[in-house]
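Today's session is about reading a structure prediction critically. Students often jump straight to the picture, but the first step is always the sequence itself: look for stretches that repeat, for charged clusters, for runs of hydrophobic residues. Only then move on to the predicted structure, which in these notes is written as discrete structure tokens rather than atom positions. Here is the chain we will use throughout the hour.
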Amino acid sequence: MLSVRMRASKVTGRRRGSGRKETEEVHISGCEGLYEVRDITKVVSSYVMRALEHPRGKPDRIIITVEKTGRKPRPVRALPVSTISSGSPREAEKHIRRILEAASVSGPALNTAWGILNSGYVMRGASLVSAKAGRRLEYDELRGVRASRFGIDDVAEEKLAFELEKQGINTSTVKEALILASKVAYRKEVIAELCMSDDPGYTTGYVATKKYGYVRVPNIKKKGTGKGGRIFFLSENANIESFVRFLEKTPVLITRAGPVRSVYSVDEILDRRHL
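Below is the predicted structure for this chain, in token form.
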């Protein structure tokens, strides 16, 4: 299989107090997957169109990378999917905090995470936060860490699409986020993941843990808001170098689809009635 990755960006300019103009490269969109050779042409074309049509604006640069993985992908099962009942950003944050606290993410760590999500700065990758102390752990806080080299085989994708379709959420956004989250959750040092899309038109975020699965959270932000980000909460003794190497270099293939459930209350999620 081949790894296909897309990154789109644009250059913006601003003037400092001295009148000197500075330029900054702003992340617009990115996506990726593992694909058979026969699918590469179609995939590259679709990735380019996604970059050109992204709500964050027209990119000045689109970079497509196609390369061999160099090793056989590690088989992983997709996390079970459910949706929590949430009617507003305030309610969404309250539910997220309850779920993540139940998964052993501390208050300081959650405060760090919400600070990142609400900062207005969109990173290319994810932030790494220690689940207990709430410390930032990534080497580059502006770039973050990019999870890469993940995909799903044809049998599992067909099964997953069928289950997602029954709940009315069979979209590339949901599938790609689930595949990424399933790769991340595979590692023992990962306590949880929290994600808020930077797409101004997409207001459903998610939390992902081994205990509760992939839980979609509607209305995590107001529509039209470009803020967002992704946070991986790690154990205090996590080997950051090993974890980053796994995220960026180890190919993972979803070979089994998990269950896809309906909408639940936060109490039902915590009681694991959705599993």
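Discussion point for the tutorial: The longest strand covers residues 21-35.
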